[in-house]
Amino acid sequence: MQADIFAKRRNEGLIFFALLAVLTVGSIIITRYDVLKGFTSIAKALVWGISNFYPDAASMLKLADILLKLRETVLMSIASTTVAAVLAIPLALAGSRTTRINGLFSIVSRGIASLFRNIPLVAWAMVLMLAFSQNPLTGFLALFFGSLGFLTRAFMETIDEVSNNSVEAVQATGAAYLHVIFQAVIPSSLPQMISWLLYMIETNIRNATLVGILTGTGIGFSFDLYYKRLDYHTASLVVILIVITVIAIEFISNKIRRVIL
């Protein structure tokens, strides 16, 4: 019996890898991608990067301006994510199977989460840029809408997974709906919600760089500006500061997660 199960899994694995190989080869043929040239260009890119893409003395003179843009990006990411989290909580409560008031509210809430979550951030930025032009509000709204969809879905799943036992215990005492929410659902779900919030802040700081390139704001705009001027030394300084900031935020959020979880 075990031999048959092993053989079945092996055959399924072989079929999967065969399909993957066919798709890969087919994609290479359709796109006319030169595999050999692609791999050999990696070495050339590394040589070019070592020769040109590093901070120099002239780029350090622009450090103060870059740090101001970086601060703007970090604050915009935190603000958009936090506001999205506040609005995601009632949407998650309405959409969760544990706390929903009725089926209509649940469908609407889940529809909003699905719609906002599945529209790419780049699409949000480009659509909003048509309405609000290039300014910080456009970047804020792009990050906000993307965060709202993701956090609503994450909070729904958190409520469904974490709150069942505590909700049943409070409901058994005859507590009203709001008492169940504030005495059982929120306390039991809050640590995991904070963890999702921290994760989204990390993600949005990375995403804000791309949004800034499109909307002409923040650190992304600075990178785009220096890169298009062929000022690769200053552009490399921008990249290094972004990496340091993301690592620092991730380190802080991991520390907080270990405390609350």
Care to describe what's here?
By secondary structure, the protein is an all-alpha fold. The chain folds into 2 domains: 2-52, no CATH class; 57-260, MetI-like (MetI-like fold, Orthogonal Bundle), CATH 1.10.3720.10. Helices cover 87% and strands 0% of the residues. It contains 11 helices and no strands. It has helices at 2-31, 35-52, 57-60, 63-95, 103-118, 121-132, 136-162, 164-171, 177-215, 218-228, 232-260. The longest helix has 39 residues, at 177-215. The chain is globular.
CATH third-level topology of the largest domain: MetI-like fold
- Total helices: the number is 11
CATH architecture of the largest domain: Orthogonal Bundle
Compressed to H and E, one letter per element, the order equals HHHHHHHHHHH
Class derived from helix and strand content: mainly alpha
* CATH homologous superfamily designation of the largest domain: MetI-like
Shape: globular
Largest sheet: none
Percent range for β-strand residues: under 5%
For the record, what CATH class of the largest domain applies?
Mainly Alpha
Roughly how many Å is the radius of gyration?
Answer: 24 Å
Query: Could you give the count of β-strands?
Result: 0
Count of the separate structural domains: 2
Mean pLDDT: 82
Helix content: over 70%
Ends distance: 42 Å
Summarize this structure as a short list of keywords or feature phrases:
MetI-like fold, mainly alpha, 261 residues, 2 domains
Write the layout of secondary structure elements.
Elements: H1 2-31, H2 35-52, H3 57-60, H4 63-95, H5 103-118, H6 121-132, H7 136-162, H8 164-171, H9 177-215, H10 218-228, H11 232-260
Helix pairs in contact: 4-5, 4-7, 4-9, 4-10, 4-11, 5-7, 6-7, 6-9, 7-9, 8-9, 9-10, 9-11, 10-11
